[in-house]
Amino acid sequence: MIRNNEEPVGLGALDRVTWALRRAELAVLTLKEQRLRPLGLAPAHYTLLMSVHVEPGLTGAELARRLNVTPQAVASLVARLESRGHLERREHPRHRHVQELHLTDAGRESLSAADKVIADIELQITDDLGPKETTQLRALLNRVAATIREDGPRGPVD
């Protein structure tokens, strides 16, 4: 039990790598939201459209697993993108009750416009870092992801 005179976190809590990752993630996400908004898209829409582009025919359940969100969240995003004409559902060739997701022409156009926005954000970051630090950062982030995947969850992350 934490008493009134005890600190609930250690002195270096805000200097943790996980906090630095979170600050960077929030900064990038905020910029994506601001720049994608004029296109009528959110970062989650871009991610979903990109996923379907890379793997046409994904099901909602497969998308949920890949994006690490609930099937309900994917269903909501898919419904919105489908109503805008960006996605279409097609019956699975072997399983009648399974529907695959595919981009429409409008979805490809929307993804192309959104990807230009994301590429500009990437350029803003990489221009500041330069080629050497960009390569180092990418390698370090890939290593962090691999380390987390290997060890599995260890409890809450900042």
Task: Summarize the structure in words.
This protein has 158 residues and is mainly α. Helices cover 63% and strands 6% of the residues. It has a two-stranded antiparallel sheet with strand order 1-2. The longest helix has 47 residues, at 105-151. The mean pLDDT is 90.
**What is the string of SSEs from the N terminus onward?**
HHHHEEH
Q: Spatial order of the strands in the main sheet?
A: 1-2
By helix and strand content, what is the structural category?
mainly alpha
Strand content: 5-15%
Mean pLDDT, to the nearest integer, reads: 90
* Shape summary: globular
List segments where confidence is low: pLDDT < 50 over at least 5 consecutive residues: none
Summarize the main sheet: 2 strands, antiparallel
Distance N terminus to C terminus?
20 Å
Number of helices: 5
In helices, the fraction of residues equals 55-70%
Please state the CA-atom Rg, rounded to the nearest Å. Answer: 20 Å
The strand count comes to: 2
SSE layout and pairings?
Elements: H1 17-36, H2 43-54, H3 60-67, H4 71-83, E1 87-91, E2 99-103, H5 105-151
Antiparallel strand pairs: 1-2
Concise description?
The protein contains 5 helices and 2 strands. It is mainly α and 158 residues long. A hairpin with a 7-residue loop joins strand 1 and strand 2 (99-103).
Notable features of this structure?
158 residues, mainly alpha, two-stranded antiparallel ribbon, 5 helices, 2 strands, globular
